[in-house]
Design a protein that fits this description.
The protein folds into three domains: about 70 residues, no CATH class; about 180 residues, Rossmann fold (3-Layer(aba) Sandwich); about 60 residues, Orthogonal Bundle (Arc Repressor Mutant, subunit A). Helix 10 links the parallel strand 5 and strand 6. The strands form two sheets. The chain has a nine-stranded mixed beta sheet with strand order 1-2-6-5-4-3-7-8-9, with helices on both faces. The chain is built from 17 helices and twelve strands. The protein is α/β, with parallel strands linked by helices.
């Protein structure tokens, strides 16, 4: 599906619209005001060149200097040379669901390929995620990507990174919505993830290339995550988590909100449990999400895809670990296995991707890779 816009001249005057986005201090509200006053992007751009925008003299002079330094067409050529696609409202390739929200971006800067025609699910959560949250997110993202959905998140630490990583591991599609320019890597440690996302979907931003991250830009980008998605799933969130802002945007736009239950003693569970109490669908795996969206039946849930053939000792360990992370001493007590035997069995399970070792000699069950 694609979007249409009641003002198709936005697309016809695309270079001028994009050039307006390059002006320092420009905001969506100021852009709307300028388009309303001057009638079109080209009209607003001419006003910038003539210092007739009504801005204070210092701002008007700065804008004109910048406007005369590079033409709109030259900007578009630079983007093309940098593999940055520019999509504006009114173009057929503008995402339809995003175009339906209250405040859709005028412009999207894209590296990679948007998942047009694919159902998208947003997965968001805590930056300081627990091992449980990371594993739950990867499992969820892998299952959704394997089912043909695109996983949308924000490329931040923690849950966001795990969501993109899970979709990539499933060789599926993923989209990262950024709070900075698409040519700015934030956090820096996610440079490789950015490249992987480019080849498995798209990096997307409403901010002009080169824009550095600022705190107020991240809540704004959350509306785009919600806008692109049929549903938003929250995995681990404190009571003041930014993930809850994304959930609020989703609710405001009539999108489904779902949450993964967390560990009851964790502060990161307060936000998700609050959502569930308020009526968000409780989901534990990709199949639950597909059922909620009416897409179930095409793919078996991951629990049915686990590798058979575990030994009785391995089955005993997996059964204990199903309740959550457990240390070696407790595992040996619960299963009656000597330390040497339990260590060997856990190593075998770890090699097969069924168990992961955590800090403090604790082990956690996970989805097979």
């Amino acid at each position: 599906m694609t979007a249409t816009d009641p003002n198709p001249w936005l697309a016809r005057e695309k270079p001028e619209l994009v050039a307006l986005m390059s002006l320092p201090g420009i905001t969506p509200r100021r852009m709307r005001d300028m388009l309303a006053v001057f009638g079109s992007p080209a009209g607003a751009w001419n006003a910038v060149l003539n210092r007739a925008t009504g801005e204070p003299e210092e701002v008007a002079r700065d804008w004109r200097q910048r406007a005369t330094a590079s033409s709109p067409d030259a900007m578009m050529s630079r983007f093309a040379a940098s593999d940055i696609t520019v999509i504006v409202r009114g173009e057929p390739v503008y995402p339809a669901m995003l175009g339906q929200i209250h405040d859709p971006p005028f412009v999207l800067f894209v590296r990679g390929a948007l998942p047009l025609g694919r159902d998208c699910v947003g997965i968001v959560g805590a930056r300081k995620a627990s091992a449980y949250g990371v594993e739950a997110t990867r499992s969820l993202a892998e299952g959704l990507a394997a089912a043909g959905l695109c996983v949308v998140s924000g490329a931040a630490y923690g849950i966001d990174t795990a969501a993109h990583d899970g979709a990539i591991k499933a060789r599926g599609l993923t989209t990262a919505v950024l709070g900075c320019g698409v040519d700015v890597v934030y956090p820096r440690s996610n440079a490789k993830l950015y490249e992987d996302i480019r080849h498995s979907g798209a990096l997307v931003s409403e901010y002009f290339p080169g824009t550095e991250p600022k705190p107020y830009q991240f809540p704004a980008r959350n509306r785009i995550i919600a806008g692109l998605s049929r549903a938003v799933v929250v995995v681990e969130a404190s009571e003041r988590s930014g993930a809850l802002i994304t959930a609020d945007f989703a609710l405001a736009e009539g999108r489904d909100v779902m949450a993964v239950p967390g560990q009851v003693f964790s502060p990161n569970s307060k936000g998700t449990h609050g959502l569930i109490r308020a009526g968000a669908a409780l989901v534990t795996n990709a199949e639950d999400v597909l059922v909620e969206l009416g897409l179930s039946g095409e793919h078996a849930p991951w629990e049915q895809q686990q590798s058979p053939g575990h030994s009785p000792e391995e089955e005993a360990l997996l059964e204990v670990l199903a309740a959550g992370p457990v240390d070696m001493e407790a595992l040996c007590l619960a299963t009656g296995q000597p330390v040497a035997s339990a260590t060997a069995n856990l190593s075998s399970l770890e090699v097969r991707g069924l168990v992961t070792r955590m800090a403090g000699n604790r082990y956690q069950r996970c989805r097979p890779r």
